[in-house]
From TrEMBL:
This is UvrABC system protein C. Belongs to the UvrC family. It is found in: Cytoplasm. Residues 15-93 form the GIY-YIG domain. InterPro entries: GIY-YIG_endonuc, GIY-YIG_endonuc_sf, GIY-YIG_UvrC_Cho, RuvA_2-like, UVR_dom, UVR_dom_sf, UvrABC_protein_C, UvrC. The keyword DNA damage applies. The keyword RNA-binding does not apply. It comes from Gelatiniphilus marinus. The lineage of its organism: Bacteria, Pseudomonadati, Bacteroidota, Flavobacteriia, Flavobacteriales. Residues 262-476 form the UvrC family homology region profile domain. Keywords: Cytoplasm, DNA damage, DNA excision, DNA repair, Excision nuclease, SOS response. The UvrABC repair system catalyzes the recognition and processing of DNA lesions. UvrC both incises the 5' and 3' sides of the lesion. The N-terminal half is responsible for the 3' incision and the C-terminal half is responsible for the 5' incision. Gene3D superfamilies: 5' to 3' exonuclease, C-terminal subdomain, GIY-YIG endonuclease, UvrC, RNAse H endonuclease domain. Signal peptide: none annotated. Interacts with UvrB in an incision complex.
Amino acid sequence: MSKPTLDIQLKTLPNAPGVYQYFDADGTIIYVGKAKNLKKRVSSYFTKTHDNGKTRVLVKKIANIKHIVVDTETDALLLENNLIKKHKPRYNVLLKDDKSYPWICIKKERFPRVFSTRRVFKDGGEYFGPYTSMKTVSTLLDLIKGLYNLRTCSYHLSEEKIQAGKYKVCLEYHLGNCKGACEGLETEAEYNENIKAIREILKGNFKDSLQQFRVQMKQFAKKMQFEDAQKIKEKIEVLENYQAKSTIVNPKISNVDVFSIMSDESYGYINFLQLSYGSIIRSHTLEIKKKLDETDQQLLELAITEIRQRFHSKSKEIYVPFKVNLGEAVKVTVPKLGDKKHILDLSLRNAKYFRMERFKQDKIVDPDRHVNRIMAQMKADLRLSEEPRHIECFDNSNIQGTHPVAACVVFKNGKPSKKDYRHFNIKTVEGPDDFASMEEVVYRRYKRLLDENQPLPQLIIIDGGKGQLSSSLKSLDALNLRGKIAIIGIAKRLEELFYPDDPIPLYLDKKSETLKIIQQLRNEAHRFGIEHHRNKRSKTALNTELETIAGIGEKTVVELLRHFKSAKRVANAKLDELEAVVGVSRAEKVYNYYNGK
């Protein structure tokens, strides 16, 4: 498929947080921005009148738009920062100053210190972040300080110096904030247990700490020390509510290529995220048309080779959703959990969004391709022998057996064909019998199509379970159409699809396009049937009310409704208005009935 125009790209952007990149006609990135809602933010560039001259020039130069979808606005801010530093787009001024974000460091030393920093050194220390707000870092450090007694001094606490009595405890010790490691009053093992717990908190794993604090809270409460128990409870609430660091950046994930795949009957969509020094610096999605029945593994191996050559990637490791064969030179990792799995999931999200946007673009610029894909998908999902280009759906409608009606709606090429919709008044069934009603309308519908030599559908959908489906099959048998038209029933409660002579229902994925079209058919049939039922019921109700007036017959009712248009207007009419329509005698009867005389 050729590159979609800007107008089409704007219409198909997702309503999700992410980063957008503007490219000029030469394919150079000229601007990078973040958005809480990509569709609204990017569209605003092209719908607003910009006072800033630089912005007007920028908009004129935009030839292509790419985007990366992320989980939160915070992730978008961090990713925007990474991409601006990497590509230095001409029209970006914000964040170009190489602004650094705060990190939390666990220093590599005896009795490690925990502190904030804006610079990351390769000194063996552990760095967590980055965080978008210093307030967040301060809050987290205050939390850690309140939970655990850590030293804040910068002494070199070697075992020899402690034993020699080189240091003395400071005010922090006397305030109860430090246990006096400098004088050997706390063991290294005990201190390191606290560091281990802090490390888990910074990773976002609060389970162990929460469990420990809950035990402490119960112990304080048991001893009637309710103030101490309340303090622990507050710590637990802070831990539970605090959202850990972003998954967009992790300094331990360095110089890695991430690939994921999403495929359908005709195409494979492979997303590529390139990570350098823990930051995403590139995102690209490749669309591959299937020639035969290639597996996802075959498509992914082909795409990885193509993408790595195109972008001159030298990464020695790749993350993929399943094992692929790329030779000995590249390490293949299939992440199962943690930050690596989060990055892989992010890649898959972008592949899914790209696929959705392609579908939307197809509807606009290439509707035939879209229809062909949908039909092929429905044929495969529903196990049909041919594509369901013509589908008909039936639904019964009655309230406590009154005014039973049925509706038949028709979809052609996946879209409603309203001129082919039909209403049915039930003629041969007494009382509320959905099974018999369905048998009647299915017979009448296809008897008429056969008599008039009209084309038959490839698929019939019955709104109901096994009972309605069995009744419909009787009609097809009577017309000798059994096996010539595919027929299924859909039960409302669990969206089960029933097939003739198969006791086990089919369950489609709740998000599948096939199920959505079937639900649309069912809902449309229900709406169309209810509409007819209401009209019939209301007409009957009007006639019944007027006909109950003594001395007023059917002919008078027709005259009144033809003139006044509704029973309500008849009821509100003045005596002289009624006389002008039906004469003095009958007008008085109607007027007295409604006005209580």
